[in-house]
Structures are given as C-alpha cells and as structure tokens.
Specification:
The chain is of the alpha+beta class. The protein has two domains: about 5-115, Immunoglobulin-like; about 140-525, no CATH class. The chain is built from 17 helices and nine strands. It has helices spanning about 15, 105-110, 140-155, 180-200, 205-230, 245-265, 270-275, 285, 290-310, 335-345, 360, 370-395, 400-420, 440-460, 470-475, 480-485, 505-525; strands at about 5-10, 30-35, 40-45, 55-60, 70-75, 80-90, 95-100, 115-120, 125. It is globular, with a radius of gyration of 27 Å.
C-alpha cells in the first residue's frame, strides 16, 4: 500500500506546533496532519490499552489543492500508546497506512520534541529520536505494612502527580494504584487473627466479640455512607444521588463477615495444636477446616453468579467493559453480572457513575468497583490475610517456619494467577481486574501481600534492622488518616491552583506535600499517644 507523495504527519507539543491552541494539560500533545494527496482522507485511532476496541474517528481532511496540503490539528492523549489508521474516502475498507506511536515516543513529545515523519507502506513503529519476635512484643511489621499501604493510598487518591501508573487501570491489568486497597484488606484479616487470639486469651466471651465487631462494622459503614456522599462543598445530602457502595462500606462488610466467622472457629489455646505432630505441616489449615468450607462456598457462589447468571442483552459470563470494547458488540454490558446485580439492587443513581473504563472505552453505564460481587472476593482476600495471621500465631516460636509458609503461599497463589490469566492481561480465563475484584486479582495481590509482609516481618520483627519509620505512624492511626485526608483533600495545603497544567512537576509536588503532611500528623499523634479506634 505505498504512496508516492505520502502523508506527512507532524506531532508536537503546544509551544512548538500551534501557538493559537488552548493550553494543553499534562499527558497531552497536539497532532497535526498535512494531507498532500489528491483525495480526501479520514484518520481513525485506537489506544493499544483498549482491548478489542472499535476504531474511533479523529479527523477528516480534504484533498490537497495546488500542491498546498490540507491540514488539521487535534489534541491527543499521551497516556497510552496509540495506533492511527489513515483511510481514503473512496469506500475502501482497507487503510492506506497505519502508524503505531509507542509510549516512549509519546513521552518524548512532552519533552518538547517536535517530530516529522512519513508513513511506511505497512505497519511501522515510530520511535522517538531523543536520547536519553519476642513473645509479647507488638508485631511492628503489620503496622508498617498497613501504614505503607495507607501512605501510597493517600498519594494516589491525591492524584499521584498525574502519572498514569499512579491511576487505576482502565479495565484489565494492574497499576500501583490498584495494589493498595487489596493490601489493606489483607491486613484486616491478619489483624483479626491476632486481635481475636489476644482477646480470647484474656477471657473475653465470644458474645462480647460479636457485639464489638457488629458495632465497629456499623460505625465504619455509617462513616462511609455519609462521609462518601457529603462534604462541605457538596451541599445538602440528597438521597436522589447518594452512592450506597464505597470503600469504607466494603471494608466494614468484609471485616464483619470475616470476624463473625472467626469468632466461632478461633482457638484460644494454640499450644494444643503444637502437640499434634501428625498434622504439624498443615495444622494452620486443618485446625480451621470449617472456615475453609465457608470461604470455598462464598467463592463458588461468586463464580456461579459471574459466569452463569443471565444478564439481559449481554453474553453469559461477560467480563468486559462494554462500550467500544469487544468491537462494540456489547456497549451496555459494563461489568457483566457484577454491574447488573448492583444496578438491580441499588439502582443506577446509587452506584458509581464514573468508572475508570468510561473515558477509554466510551462507556455510558454506571459501574461500581465496590459492588456486591467484588465484596465477596474482598472477603476471600481478607481470608488469605487471616491465614497469614494464623501462621504467625501457630508458628510464632519459629520465625523461619513463618517465612517458609509465607513463601509457599505466595508461590501457590502466583501459580494460580498464572493459570487463570494465562500470563496475559486480557486473554486469560479470568483476567486481573480491580474493578471486578476478579479471582485472579485476589490471588495475585495475595501473592504480593505474603511476600511483602514476609519481607517486613523478617527485617523489622526478626532481624530488627528497621523500626518501620515513617510508615508505622499512619499505620497505627489508619482510620484518622484515611477519613482526614479524604475530607480535606480539596483544601490548602493539600490542594492549590496549579499554574502549569502542562507539567507533572507541580502536581507531583502538591501530592507529595499532602501525603507528607499526613505522615507528619500521624507522627505527632503517635508522640501524643493518641490512637483513634472504633
């Protein structure tokens, strides 16, 4: 598909390529197309991250006149790699040529590199040419892990400097932002194991535990509903638009299910387990076999609803984003059964209306990443954390056994993830998906959690090379930091009017400062021995 004259394409940033254009935001550049051909052309594009998506129209250009090219300039995103397709407006369904702009190339555009190139006959990749454990000692690693997760959560919630890898993945896949909440859920399970063992040893009745965990759940969910839907800048709370699911609601419900279950099966006297040598290798599993049955039943229910529930207008077992994904065949099927259940149970006005897939996949349906099916898998994620806590308690006299079991669990979960995903982002049986909290997402993040907690346990509690600072401070005041950082996110000094919208640097400074302030505040509270508990 060669062209004698070619299509000259100029890509550049605002300052170099078009002085009259409005100021660009970060992660944007200007695309200028000059058509030297004697017939009109149409330019379409597709993001390489958008899986099985339809081509989207970008611009149309008339034919060149008297050797003067027709040209047009549009703003494009540089967040993901893009592929451009050029078509003649003569009814031919085959493109004249294709241009694949890699992520590296698009990144160079933001460094004010203006590039000029000609299309090759077939597909071509355009590269930028710029170079460049004591018995009664508190488990400090758990507080540090919680604080580490919370610190990253605050940073990404404040914007992560505007960098794409600190934003949630549009649909399948993982970014840094997708790691922190699952880690927090994992820690909930570990904390339940340690706390309940301690309280039962003190003689607290199980009925008292039920009252305590019920109260804590109600408080968490109430804070989530009213805090999430109302703020000083929002005006009066209206049921017409109030979102029912949310982060704290999910954490509260996950805690309730896991803690309620563990209340009836936790063991106040673990010394007895150490005397059973025949089951020593797996006693952390055998001792709690009823819990495993309950969790297996919950996960079976989740999988059956996901893959067998009929969804009107959608294929059974659909896991895609809808919109223009899957070549636009299922535009109203965002999230499949998970989205359908939430809309049926809560109503469209009471779930999240701006899912991460909305911009890339052009979706029109609301979808809540904290929905019902995902919450079931959240309980499973917390159960793996509970398992970590059981391992710490049962093998507490032998730290190397704890580390070995953590490593074994991470290997088993990693292999499970590899099978479920086929080691791909989109082509597996169950892709990794934070919006759906898919089973592969749970196994992958649990694998990471066992590795990270094991590393911190060895460094902090076994070898005592590190005291966990500064992450241990927010880890010991997590509710205060989470609620506080969300309530004050839009106020100075956590937010201010940015002068340069074309650069990440001021956004990065703003978000790092806001995160650092909360770490410092938690340090001051630690010094004052103030710990907000529910």
């Amino acid at each position: 598909m060669g062209m004698s004259a070619g299509v000259v394409v100029l890509l550049g940033v605002f300052a170099l390529c078009h002085a009259e254009a409005n100021e660009l935001n970060y992660d944007e550049a200007l695309l200028t197309v000059n058509n030297y051909l004697l017939h009109p052309i149409t330019l379409l594009y597709m993001s390489d991250y958008c899986y099985k998506c339809l081509l989207q129209p970008l611009m149309s250009l008339p034919a060149a006149q008297s050797l003067q090219p027709a040209n047009h300039t549009v703003t494009i995103t540089t967040q993901f790699a893009l592929t451009f397709h050029v078509f003649k407006e003569d009814g031919n369904e085959e493109p004249v040529c294709r241009l694949a702009c890699t992520h590296k190339f698009l990144e160079e555009l933001k460094k004010k590199t203006c590039c000029d190139f000609h299309n090759e006959p077939d597909e071509s990749v355009v590269q930028s040419q710029s170079a460049d454990t004591p018995k009664h000692r508190r488990l400090l690693s758990l507080d540090t892990f919680r604080g580490f997760s919370l610190t990253i959560m605050v940073f990404v919630n404040y914007g992560g400097g505007g960098y794409w890898f600190f934003q949630h993945a549009p649909w399948n896949g993982l970014t840094v932002a997708d790691l922190v909440m699952p880690w927090f859920v994992f820690i909930i399970g570990t904390s339940v194991a340690l706390a309940f063992s301690s309280m039962l040893k003190k003689g607290i009745y199980r009925s008292q535990l039920v009252r305590k965990l019920t109260w804590r759940t109600c408080v968490l969910m109430a804070i989530g509903v009213f805090f999430l839907n109302f703020g000083p800048a929002d005006g009066p709370l209206s049921w017409h638009w109030a979102r029912i699911p949310g982060v704290l609601q999910r954490l509260g419900f996950t805690y309730f299910v896991l803690a309620f279950m563990h209340t009836f099966f936790s063991k106040p006297n673990l010394e007895e387990a150490e005397s059973h040598q025949r089951s020593a290798a797996v006693r952390d599993i055998v001792m709690y076999w009823p819990e495993w049955i309950i969790i297996a039943a919950l996960e079976t229910l989740s999988l059956c609803l996901t893959f067998l529930l009929p969804v009107p207008g959608c294929p059974t077992g659909y896991l895609g984003p809808g919109g223009i994904g899957d070549f636009g065949l299922y535009p109203n099927c965002t999230g499949g059964a998970a989205g359908y259940i939430d809309k049926w149970l809560f109503g469209q006005n009471h779930i999240y209306n701006h899912p991460t897939c909305k911009e890339l996949y052009k979706t029109t349906q609301p979808f809540d990443p904290e929905g019902i099916l995902g919450t079931i898998n959240s309980v499973v994620m917390a159960f793996f954390g509970l398992q970590a806590g059981k391992i710490i308690l049962i093998y507490r006299k032998s730290p190397h056994k704890i580390l070995c079991r953590f490593f074994i669990w991470s290997i088993l979960l990693g292999i499970t993830s590899a099978i479920l995903t086929k080691c791909t982002r989109d082509e597996g049986f169950i892709p990794i998906n934070k919006n759906l909290w898919s089973l592969s997402f749970i196994t992958t993040l649990s694998c990471f959690s066992f590795l990270l907690l094991g590393l911190m346990f060895y460094v902090i509690d076994v070898r005592r090379w590190w005291g966990g600072q500064p992450f241990i401070y927010p880890g010991m005041n997590s509710i205060f930091v989470y609620v506080g950082h969300s309530l004050l996110a839009s106020y100075f000094p956590f937010n201010w009017e940015v002068k340069n919208w074309t650069s990440h640097y001021e956004f990065l400074a703003q978000d790092l400062l806001g995160t650092s302030i909360w770490v410092f505040v938690s340090y001051l509270l630690y010094r004052k021995k103030f710990f907000l508990k529910i």
